[in-house]
Amino acid sequence: MATARTVLVTGGNRGIGYAIAEEFIAQGHRVAITARSGEGPAGSLTVRADVTDYASIDAAFTEIEAAYGPVEIVVANAGITKDTLLMRMSEEDFTSVIDTNLSGAFRVVKRASKGMLKARFGRIVLISSVVGLYGSAGQVNYSSSKSGLVGLARSVTRELGARGITANVVAPGFIETDMTAQLPDAQQAEYKRNIPAGRFASPAEVARVVTWIAGDDASYISGAVIPVDGGLGMGH
């Protein structure tokens, strides 16, 4: 049995974040999630927070620390999309996605690092996307925010690596969530044609990679980008 840790998953009320929280709970960890609305899975502590507001993140951490002790594993998963072609993309479409997906991860990691530095232990996992390095038409804002997480993880690794802290990126491809379920069948089929595995992933397949990279067996891995995309990105 792995060491039971205090885990925070941001955006843990649905989709991949929900599955990640579920998997950590199943493995015996103390799990908190942040969400603007909705609840995390059974057995998790749900805390209201908005990753675009540092004061709300700080308050969320304080609440979690009071209940479970210092956060040892943080999964920065909260994210939004505002897809549109470059020529039609407003400045607000761009900056709001960056502020949530990239600056939001920075705020969460900065607050988490306080306790991790004191403990000389920490696991930081940033949830990116295959489009972070592969690119995607209509997602200049989203892919920029997701590729930015790679630089964040690698710089944090160089700063904090000697203190028992790792920082890694998990880059999912197409996952079976409410979001992909809404795509027209023809579009889903087209996407699957481009994926060597020929199918979308289940959220649990992403969650198990996250729990592994945050676990005892992966203590010497840091600054890595781990694709969970059925071969779609391949080296991007």
Give an overview of the whole structure.
The protein is an alpha/beta fold and 236 residues long. It has one domain (6-226): NAD(P)-binding Rossmann-like Domain (Rossmann fold, 3-Layer(aba) Sandwich), CATH 3.40.50.720. Helices cover 45% and strands 16% of the residues. The chain has helices at 15-26, 54-68, 91-119, 131-134, 140-160, 178-181, 185-194, 203-213; strands spanning 6-10, 30-35, 45-48, 73-76, 122-127, 165-172, 225-228. A seven-stranded parallel β-sheet has the order 3-2-1-4-5-6-7, with helices on both faces. Helix 1 links the parallel strand 1 (6-10) and strand 2. Helix 1 (15-26) crosses helix 8, helix 2 runs parallel beside helix 3 and helix 3 runs parallel beside helix 5. It is globular. It comes from Cryobacterium arcticum. Residues 5-178 form the Ketoreductase domain. Keywords: Oxidoreductase. GO terms for molecular function: oxidoreductase activity.
CATH-level-2 architecture: 3-Layer(aba) Sandwich
* Gyration radius, in Å: 17 Å
The overall strand count is: 7
Residue share in helix? 40-55%
* Low-confidence runs: none
In the sheet with the most strands, the strands line up as 3-2-1-4-5-6-7
- Overall number of domains: 1
Order of helices and strands: EHEEHEHEHHEHHHE
Outline: globular
Query: What is the fold named in CATH at topology level?
Result: Rossmann fold
Instruction: Report the top-level CATH class.
Output: Alpha Beta
Instruction: Tell me the strand percentage band.
Output: 15-25%
Biggest sheet features: 7 strands, parallel
Number of distinct helices? 8
Distance between the termini: 35 Å
Mean pLDDT: 96
CATH homologous superfamily title:
NAD(P)-binding Rossmann-like Domain
What structural class do the secondary elements suggest? alpha/beta
